[in-house]
Amino acid sequence: MFYIGKNQLARQGQTLAKTKQLDWSGRFASLAKTSKYPSLKAFYQQGVISASTPLLDVPMVALDFETTGLDPSRDSIVSIGLVPMSISRIRCGESKHWIVKPKTNLHSASVVVHGITHSAVADAPDFSNVIDTLLGCLRGKIVVAHHAPIERRFLHAALMRHLQEGIEFPVIDTMAIEAQFSRRKSQEIWRSLLGRQRTSIRLSDSRTRYHLPYYRQHNALTDAIACAELLQAQCVTHLSLDTPVSAIWS
Q1: Domain named Exonuclease: which ranges (predicted)?
Q2: Which of 43, 49, 83, 215 has a C-alpha 20 to 30 A away from that of 60?
């Protein structure tokens, strides 16, 4: 995960209360009719679970990208990590991790962050070589990500480059959940009065609040697993397992 700056993070962290709900079942049915690429069409044809499905019964996949920068219009995905999961189990044995050759040049700033160098991508497969497998892994599942706009925008942009078709999908954003429960208005007012910074909702800081172990950051697979564990902790701490998925997806 290529982390954004603190000021940008503060602006973009959205609470669940402000999340706009969408009829995902209807949207998938519509997109299944218009999509041309076979694997993308199959992704939509699989459909999406009912909005009323309790969290305990939701099939999920935690997803994380490392990228060459933060702008999907000019930067590219350089690695992908994903792990199937549910609220009760993380299926590490079914996880996937790819390093892919980016369409845009690696920047020194991004190399410092994720450690993926020019030599590492020299013989890496093109993103187009993993599209079918990636879409198959996402099919029928709800994506879980920390700061979901990164995964949404970069995957959409990557598919537009390769397929001339984008992608839409519901996401459970662990950063948005953390903003909802750890940035309560009264707490943040007191922090401000005491001259303290806003509560951090970065992945590692969020995990610390739930006493989860520290993992080395900026590896796509490790960050996906870290995100999966965080969601489980958030749900156990703040939500009932009977909570409908519509309460936390967008």
Answers
A1: 59-240
A2: 215
